[in-house]
Amino acid sequence: MTSTMMKAVRQHAFGGPEVLQYEDAPMPELNAGEVLVRVHAVGLNPPDWYLRDGYKMLPEEWRPEVTFPFILGTDISGMVTAIADDVTDFAIGDAVYAMVRFPDGLAGGSKAYAEYVSVPASELAIKPAGIDHAHAAGAPMSLLTAWQFMIDLGHTAPNPLQATSHQPVPLKGKTVLVNGAAGGVGHFAVQIAKLKGAHVIAVASGRHEALLRDLGADEFIDYTKTPPEEVARNIDLVIDALGGPTTGRFLTTLKRGGALFPIFPLGFSGEKEAEKLGITVSTTQVRSSGAQLAEVAHLLDSGEIRVVLDSTFALADASKAHERAAKGHIQGKIVLTVD
Fold first, then answer.
1. Chain segment 77-125, per-residue pLDDT in tens
2. Interstrand relation of 124-126 and 34-43 (parallel, antiparallel or unpaired)
3. Do residues 116 and 27 lie in contact, with contact meaning Cβ atoms separated by under 8 Å?
4. 5-142+287-337: what fold?
């Protein structure tokens, strides 16, 4: 590489999609323990638009301090172009994917909306050969979220969202309801639950039914016609991929000894009711893990877990991708492609 500059999407102020600027930016420096990746695709996730508008959905004391300009994004797929001297697990030319510096990069330190990104080697894994870069970039955060909630937490870091560590529950032979089943985390949760032997009930709008049944859902509830809390009963586990203040409505769907896992727990206020009903409510924050991405790679490679793409946009059109996200009702993942 002869140039020290690259193209990236940066923002110089908080705001809507219009603040995303496609412009020249300095190439990332390669530090010890890191790998430089030429990005081919970038996966979008809710923390991207949360950071873009200044984390207005968080209590003020939780909002990280941000230095402008910064580059959004965590999820990438691409090719290794350089490695630090102390890195031995990767080689130049490797096709790789990663969720970069999360949650450490909450204040814009992940920097994935760019032609190049430096990635700690511990967060990197070889890209599944059976899928292209766009599909690989759609996996990391959403798939790791579902995996860490449902299968293996994969780390011992303190839980910032509750006093105790999150504990996944056995899935084989259980009935699992997934709310927001067509979205990024939701469509992976449906597939993981089915893969692990659960009876899966998917909740989404009717237009997603065919896809979700194809992904393994045994039953489907169209929430636009029937509130799921009115018809679902004796559930062992609810994965609420939407979460928030309304997640408590699922407490009555669970059997005693069941569990409710809200992916976004802020606003939940039903702890006393859950205790009274004998239900465990637990959450966690997803964390980068190259080891877990390597573990799930064979499932992506074989097609046992599929990445569904809602839409793709060029890196230069990141603002349009965020406009698409703002419309909601996303089916799978939105991805940026990088020439």
1. 999 999 999 999 999 999 999 999 999 999 999 999 999 999 999 999 9
2. unpaired
3. yes
4. Quinone Oxidoreductase; Chain A, domain 1 (3.90.180)
Give the amino acid at 56: K
Q: Topology of domain 167-281, per CATH?
A: Rossmann fold (3.40.50)
Rounded to 5°, the CA angle 250-251-255 comes to: 110
Question: Comparing C-alpha atoms, which of 55, 21, 98, 44 is closest to residue 288?
Answer: 98
Q: How far apart are CA 124 and CA 152, in angstroms?
A: 18
Paired strand residues for 221:
203
* Nearest residue to 327 via CA among 132, 183, 223, 220: 183
Q: Where are the domains of the chain?
A: 5-142+287-337, 167-281
Average pLDDT over residues 250-267: 97
The answer to pTM > 0.85 is yes
Is-contact 131 301, C-beta < 8 A?
yes
Band of residue 2 on the pLDDT scale cut at 50, 70, 90:
very low
How far apart, in whole angstroms, are the C-alpha atoms of residue 29 and residue 34? 9
| Measured distance CA(115)–CA(100) in Å, rounded | 14
